[in-house]
Amino acid sequence: MDSTNSIYPPEHYEYYPLDLDEGPMLLPKEHELVLNTGTGQATLVNWETRRFQAETRFDTDEVLIIKTLLDHWPCYTAYEELYRLLVTDDLAEQIARCLADARETDNRALFDVALHPVRSLLHACQGRLALFGLHLNAVYQRGYLLTRMPTGGNQ
User: Fold this and answer.
1) C-alpha angle with apex 143: 142 to 147, nearest 5 degrees?
2) Which of 33, 80, 108, 132 is most exposed, with minimal Cβ within 10 Å?
3) What is the predicted pLDDT for the residue at 17?
4) In sequence order, what are the beta bridge partners of 16?
């Protein structure tokens, strides 16, 4: 994305083209997701036509999670890192130990209980991310990854 494209004032805006020169591409080249970290406003901008394609708003906790997922893309974000955004360091450490124990013992019930708050928050964001053609995919026992919205029909 051309660095001359921006929205003013720039102090709270993060820009995510979500495409790589080679490899995965979540948005067309001329599009960019613009996230206002102060207000939670997210806007899909087509810089070629200079038009907003979609927009929504995320609350305070949601914007922290969404920004982190966007910052890590095209890699996944570990559950433990998502929890660090939402709870105290001590509680995040306890949850990390709980998740490690659940992985080690393959205890799905413990895993489900430990992840319930993060899963609930991400589930609440899923419909708004779909406005941008984005989807949250779980990476088995590891974290979440932003992907393209699944297309309908059999492939």
Assistant:
1) 125
2) 108
3) 94
4) 33
